[in-house]
Amino acid sequence: MEVCKLKDTYNNNIDHDEIDELKLYKHLGGGLPTVNSLTDLIQELNAVFASDSVNVELVHYLMKSYKSNPLDWKKYAKFDRYRYTRNLVDNGNGKYNLMALCWGEGHGSAIHDHANSHCFMKMLKGSLEEVRFAWPKSEGEELQVIGRKRLNFNDVCYINDSLGLHRVENTSHVEGAVSLHLYCPPYSQCSVFNQTTGQRSVCTVTFWSMYGKKRNRDIQESRAPEDN
Ligand SMILES: [Fe+2]
Hints:
One of its GO terms (molecular function) is cysteine dioxygenase activity. The chain is an alpha+beta fold. Helix content is 16%, strand content 31%.
């Protein structure tokens, strides 16, 4: 069984916040889901991903519809002093991972790909800067910047490997940031890239906490120096 078949129509146009709600409304046969809480969001996502053919516009709509409320997500928001953290919120019955990423002041990711998965990212607190890069064409070549975007409170953005690589950073020196990420299908390894040389290396991604509970120190410290 194909874990997650996503519509081809959802392509380069996704990098904006506009969703054709009328089209989506008609596609669903009338009636758009209401999302009033993180619990509602998870429930709706589980329903969407129960099918083998997932409507990606609907996933985007659901992520966008949820209005961040810290009371919903504070139990997952576990910060580390030195690096950003990945905190599992829901495993989507094996079809996707939903996680809260906590970015301290000045924390940023390495430049990375998304292991052929689809990635939705929603701001729950603060703002982040996303810088996109083209895939390196040859070894030893510096990565070329192809886009730059600020993600503000409640914004949603999307990326997959066909849209390039990216780095995400909390550029604020005074405020932490929290973002909610959905990866479909889930993955535990991706590639990270050296900006100057384009050199690629494999990186294992780990969780700092799962379902609101911190993992033991060994697991936390086993993470690679630069993961996504
Ligand atoms: Fe990413």
